[in-house]
Amino acid sequence: MNQTEDSQDFVTSVAKELPFLRRYARALTGNQTSGDNYAAATLEAMLENPDLVDRSKSAKVGLFGAFHAIWTSSGAPIDESEGGIAAKAQSHLSRLTQNTREALLLHSIEGFDYGEIGEIMGIEQDEAQELVSIAQRELAESVTGKVMIIEDEAIIAMDLESIVAEMGHKVTGVARTRTEAVELGKAERPDLIMADIQLADNSSGIDAVNDLLGDLGDMPVIFITAFPERLLTGEKPEPAFLIAKPYTEEQVRLAASQAMFFSSTETLLA
Predict the structure, then answer these.
(1) Tens digit of pLDDT for each residue in 7-23?
(2) What residue spans define the domains of the chain?
């Protein structure tokens, strides 16, 4: 295989990983626009400076490593022009130890091992592991609030309810359809929504969430789906928080804690 073919294969491999970089970037910023802007800036930097990506590593590690070079050089901020949830997150985020949130997201959501996290962040493997441990402790001590679950599979709904309750959150209820979700949300406004995509009556969890946001105002949403790439096309408004089925308890805990950081402090429980 010649150098041109190697380059084309690498570009193709990077393209396959882009939806997951966008998911990660959104989780860091809590906002689709900000996250996508960072992902786009990474691609632009890679085109201008091909040496930014270490091609001796896997395409995904190289891509995420390039992202972190951009992220850290900008000071890892949240865009001050953002309003709503992202703006309210600043005081929460300032309490976290530096780099811990990045390490935890890379480990728990994107599935990198500690060695790969070290390569991406430019740190030793032991330090990456310690950052993940610190983040887990700090997020466990974070704010709690009210969570509504939209899920038509009883076993999954019970599992999510158990995980969320163990974290100290109050579960306002479980809805199986779009209509039930709207009624439940109006009965008690949640601070966070966890929603499956396909519901019992063939209605859409996305439509249910849009109804709720229209009636109740801005709040963080975690979508749970077996096909996350279908929601990461960039063609329309998309979720900042996304869990793939089958999920792990750690992924649910992390996503819930992350989302709560981007929730209004006015309604969170003490």
Answers:
(1) 677 778 888 888 889 88
(2) 3-139, 143-261
Using a pLDDT cut of 70, give the percent of the chain over it: 78
Task: Provide the whole-model pTM.
Answer: 0.58
Which secondary structure element, helix H or strand E, spans residue 251, and what is its range? helix 249-261
CB burial of 152-172 (b: ≥16 within 10 Å; e: otherwise) equals beeebbebbbebbeebebebb
Distance separating alpha carbons of residues 90 and 95, to the nearest angstrom:
9
Question: What's the pLDDT tens digit per position in 133-152?
Answer: 888 777 666 667 899 999 99
- Our measurement of the distance from residue 167's CA atom to the centroid of its chain's CA atoms, rounded to an integer in Å, reads 18
Query: How far is the C-alpha of 170 from the C-alpha of 193, rounded, in Å?
Result: 12
Question: Strand, helix or coil at 148?
Answer: strand
Which residues, at least 6 apart from 238, have a Cβ–Cβ distance to it below 8 Å?
Answer: 26, 32, 231, 232
CATH topology of domain 3-139: Butyryl-CoA Dehydrogenase, subunit A; domain 3 (1.20.140)
- What is the chain's length? 270
Bridge partners, residue 149, by sequence: 174, 194
Beta carbons of 135 and 103 less than 8 angstroms apart: yes
CA distance 129 to 256: 21
Beta strands in 97-232 (DSSP E): 146-150, 170-175, 192-196, 221-225
Query: What torsion do the CA atoms of 64, 29, 225, 132 make, to the nearest 10 degrees?
Result: 60
Q: What is the mean pLDDT of residues 105-115?
A: 88
Q: How many CB atoms lie within 10 A of CB 13?
A: 14
Question: Would the CA dihedral through 16, 20, 26, 28 be positive or negative?
Answer: negative
> Is residue 206's pLDDT more than 60?
yes
* CATH number for region 143-261: 3.40.50.2300
